[in-house]
Amino acid sequence: ISFKLYRETRNHRVSFVFVMDKLNLIKIDTKSPEYHFVETLMISAFPLDERRDDALQRQIVDGNNCMECLVIKDGDVSVGFITVWTLTEIIYVEHFAIAEAFRRRGYGKLALAELIRMSNVGRLILEVELPSTEEAVRRISFYEKCGFELSARPYVQPSYSPDKQSLPMSLMTYGKVGKQEIENAVKEIYKIVYNV
After folding, report:
1. Which of 33, 48, 91, 192 has the fewest CB atoms in 10 Å of its CB?
2. Burial class (CB in 10 A: 0-12, 13-18, 19+), 184
């Protein structure tokens, strides 16, 4: 895969070319060499209230058949990760991050396209921050450009543990996802992912 990015300057155009090998999403566990990269990126990309404690996360990665930890690789280089849960009617994207050095190069869009291609159900759901900050609005816009739709349904992300806060969030869906499928997904997410 090859594409060009341009940076405009006053009197001339400077061209940057990024060449990607094949982008792969590879299932890993905590024994995989890439897991340290994933854990480090998760800690830097997500606030404490938006992730589990490291020990519990490791336990779920290794022991829960509904959840998959996928490292995003461009050839031999790890560029990000996605954690997903296979629910009855939909795939729940719990965490998704591209390493800072690889952002704004198209990896996020390509990774989501590959995840959609790999999924059997063709429907995804994920949580995003409320559109109250510039960064949150930018994130929502990114997902919309990838084909996701912002749901009007009010949603609260339950706390990951008693010492963490629950958070008001928004839901976004990909594919043909109606109101009932969203309700069913939220019930499963609460029960299976958050244990509430």
Report:
1. 33
2. middle
Q: For the whole model, what pTM was predicted? A: 0.88
* Angstrom distance (rounded) from CA 101 to CA 77: 12
- The structure tokens listed for 42 are 């998760």
Pairing between strand 155-157 and 124-129?
unpaired
Tokens of 123: 């429907």
| Nearest 10 degrees: Cα torsion 158, 155, 113, 123 | 100
Closest to 48 measured CA to CA, from 196, 164, 194: 164
pLDDT digits (tens, 9 = 90+) for 127-171: 999 999 999 999 999 999 999 999 999 999 999 999 999 999 999
Using CB atoms within 10 Å of the CB of residue 101, give its burial: 0 to 12 exposed, 13 to 18 middle, 19+ buried.
Answer: exposed
Backbone phi and psi for residue 70, each to the nearest 5 degrees, phi listed first: -115, 120
Degrees (nearest 5) of the Cα angle 172, 67, 148? 15
Count Cβ atoms below 10 Å from residue 74 Cβ, excluding itself: 21
- Per the rule left: phi > 0, alpha: psi between -120 and 50, beta: everything else, 121 is alpha
